[in-house]
Amino acid sequence: MKLHGATALVTGANRGLGHHLAQELLRRGAKVYATARRPELVDLPGAEVLRLDITDQASVDAAASAATDVDVLINNAAFTAGGNLTTGDLGAIREVMDSNYYGTLAMIRAFAPILARNGGGAILNVLSAAAWTTVDGNTSYAAAKSAQWGLTNGVRVELAPQGTLVAALVPGLIATETLRDYVRAAGLELPEHVMIDPADLARVALDGLEAGDIEILDRIGADAKATLSGAPQAFDLAALAG
Ligand SMILES: NC(=O)c1ccc[n+]([C@@H]2O[C@H](COP(=O)([O-])OP(=O)(O)OC[C@H]3O[C@@H](n4cnc5c(N)ncnc54)[C@H](OP(=O)(O)O)[C@@H]3O)[C@@H](O)[C@H]2O)c1
C-alpha cells in the first residue's frame, strides 16, 4: 500500500522505535497521529498528537473516536521488562501481557471497523525475534511476543475479507535506550553492529508495508525464524557481546 497520502496512527510514538516510525511516515507524506501515554513528550512537528494508553479501554475508544480517518495502524507500544516467568514479579508479567497482547488486541478491535470504512488499509504489529526463541532473564516478554505473533496471524485471517493487510515486524536488537539499559543491567556491552538503528528499521518496516509483505524481518529476526523447525532454544545475548 502507498503511504504517501495515507493516514497512520502509531502507538508509543514518544520515544524509541515508535518515534522513528512516526517520523518516517511523515517523511513519506502520510498524515500521522502520534500517540503516547504522555503526549507532552512527543516531539514530532507535523504530527497530530493524541493521548493513548493501549491498556485502558476508555483511552483506546477515545482515540478511535478522534482518529476516524486512519487507514494504517501501527501497534508499536509495549512494556518490555517483565522478567522471568518463574521468578519475576507477577504484576510486571501481567503488564507485559497486557500491553503486548491485550493492548494490541484492543487497538485492533477498535480500529478494524475504521480501517474497513477507509478501504481496508493495513495493520503493522511490532513483534520481536524473542517470539521465536526466548530470552533468559526476560522469558515473560518472549512469551507475550509469541502470543502477539499468534494474535497477528489470527487477525490477518479474520480481516482479509475486508481487505486489511496485517503485517508483523520482527526485529532482533534495536538500538533504543530501553535495550541499552537492559544490556547494561545484564552487565554486558553489545557491539553497535549487532543492533539495528531504529531510524533504519523504520525505513525497512515501511518499505515492507508498502511492498505488501506480511512478515518483515531483520537479520536476527530471520535467524530466529530459521530455528523454528528445530528444538526450542534461548537467544544468547552474551554470545553477541563477545
Ligand atoms: N529495543 C529492542 O531491542 C526491541 C527488539 C525487538 C522488538 N522490540 C519491540 O519494538 C517496540 C518498541 O521498542 P522500543 O525499544 O522502541 O521500546 P521503548 O523505547 O521502551 O518504548 C516503548 C514505548 O511503548 C510505550 N508504552 C508502553 N506501554 C504502553 C501503554 N500501555 N500504552 C501506550 N504506550 C505504551 C512507551 O511509553 P512510555 O514512554 O509512556 O513508557 C514507549 O513510548 C516494542 O514493541 C518492542 O517489544 C524492541
Your description of this structure?
With 242 residues, this protein is an alpha/beta fold. It has helices at 16-27, 57-66, 90-117, 139-159, 177-185, 198-211, 219-226, 237-241; strands at residues 7-10, 31-36, 48-51, 72-75, 122-126, 165-170, 215-217. It starts with 6 loop residues before the first strand and ends with a helix. Helix 1 (16-27) crosses helix 6 (198-211), helix 2 runs parallel beside helix 3 (90-117) and helix 3 (90-117) packs parallel to helix 4 (139-159). The protein has one domain: Rossmann fold. It is globular, with a radius of gyration of 17 Å. It is built from eight helices and seven strands. Residues 11-12, 14-18, 36-38, 52-55, 76-80, 99, 103, 126, 128, 171, 173-174, 176-179 line the site of NADP nicotinamide-adenine-dinucleotide phosphate. This is Short-chain dehydrogenase. It holds the Pfam family adh_short. One of its GO terms (molecular function) is oxidoreductase activity.
